[in-house]
Amino acid sequence: MSNSIPGLTEEQMREVDRIMIEDLGIELMQMMENAGRNLAELALRLFNAASAAVLVGPGGNGGGGLVAARHLANRGVAVQVTLSRPWPEFAGVPAHQLAILERMGVSVAHGEAADADLVIDALIGYSLRGDPRGTTRDLIGRANDAEAPVLSLDTPSGLNVTTGEAATPCIRATATMTLALPKIGLIGAPQVGELWLADISVPPSVYRVFGFEVGNLFAEDTIIRV
After folding, report:
1. Cα–Cα–Cα angle for 90, 93, 96, rounded to 5 degrees
2. Is the pTM of this model over 0.85?
3. What is the distance between the alpha carbons of residues 141 and 135, in angstroms, rounded to a whole number?
4. What is the largest CA-CA distance in the chain?
5. What is the CA radius of gyration of the chain?
6. Going by C-beta distance under 8 Å and a sequence separation of 6 or more, which residues neighbour residue 48?
């Protein structure tokens, strides 16, 4: 990682999200849109896939994956969304994103992932607690067994973003697009693959809470290689 780009722990990233929403009024919906749009853009830049299997959990990470699915579908990619939990268990902003895909006619299933040119991992974000279980565990295993490359959102599902410790199982990503600032557990972890950083519109002033001066990281692009 460049010495000019600091890393965040899970606790610090939670505080970034809190400041964005409570202090600045930049809503989760806006951040999720930025994350998903950038993820779709990176998927096209790196892999130029004709089809994508998007693996989605019910939390904010999954919501970003649903946004990416919408943008990829709008750009002509054949998208199959696979949910790790039944549809009724989605709530809030992720449920809103899921309803949009339903209205668009994007294929959505629970538990069964389709074969595709690219797998997008949006199952578990930075709030990992214990080993993945149930359908989430099975989808991670299927992604790792697939011949297609895997692009993870924020962190490979199953990787602790603070310690870098991998749960059992853990996604082995070809590339990972993390958000805001890199998480310290991602640096050097073999499960991460290529590490990219995407803008979700966090002002540099937010990072001064932690004593970080990051400058204008995204002056030339909203997605940069770390």
Report:
1. 75
2. yes
3. 10
4. 46
5. 16
6. none
- Can you give the length of the chain in residues? 226
pLDDT tens column, 73-114: 999 999 999 999 999 999 999 999 999 999 999 999 998 888
**Per residue in 186-195, is it b (16+ CB within 10 Å) or e — as a string?**
beebebbbeb
Cβ atoms 108, 90 nearer than 8 A:
no
Q: Are 151 and 39 in contact (CB under 8 A)?
A: yes
Please say whether the beta carbons of 224 and 204 come within 8 A.
no
User: Quick count: other Cβ atoms within 10 Å of Cβ 165?
Assistant: 13
For the chain, which domains are there?
10-225 (3.40.50.10260)
Three-state DSSP at 102 gives helix
Q: Look up residue 146 and give its amino acid.
A: A
Distance (Å) of CA 215 to CA 14, 19, 44, 203: 21, 18, 28, 9
Give pLDDT tens digits for 144-178: 999 999 999 999 999 999 999 999 999 999 999 99
